[in-house]
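hi got a favour to ask and not much time before my train. below you get a single protein, a line of residues and a line of whole numbers that encode the local backbone shape. could you go over both lines and see whether the tokens make sense for that sequence. a few lines back from you is plenty, here it is:
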Amino acid sequence: MKYICLGYYEPAIHAAMTEDQRNRMFDECFDYDDHLRANGHWVGGEALAPSATALTVYWKNGKVATTDGPYVETKEQLGGILVIEARDINHAVQLMSRHPSTRYGAIFDIRPVGDMSEIMHASEQRRRKLAPH
């Protein structure tokens, strides 16, 4: 089963690190990513640019509106996503609890991937009926 792991970090902790400390942290994290790949648990992942570069899009008063930066103000910022393959949620927790970034203050929100295939199929059927022939 696939799990999406949302990785949060505190920018202040990263800012307080020396370059050597940051390099060591990244080296340990990338080494663990290689371990996940080698053992068939890596599905994908990406880092995110800082939250100051974010743009939040939402619906307000009948039209699209945007807000610069993250919508929610928190100390922690979403730093990236990791998609892993695990037997169950306990296995996913076990895998992510060994991720080196947790020793540097990272927090992971682990969620099963939602299976949208039936909903997508039903939507395709409805849209086909509405499409001009």
DSSP finds four helices and six strands in the chain. The longest helix spans residues 19-38.
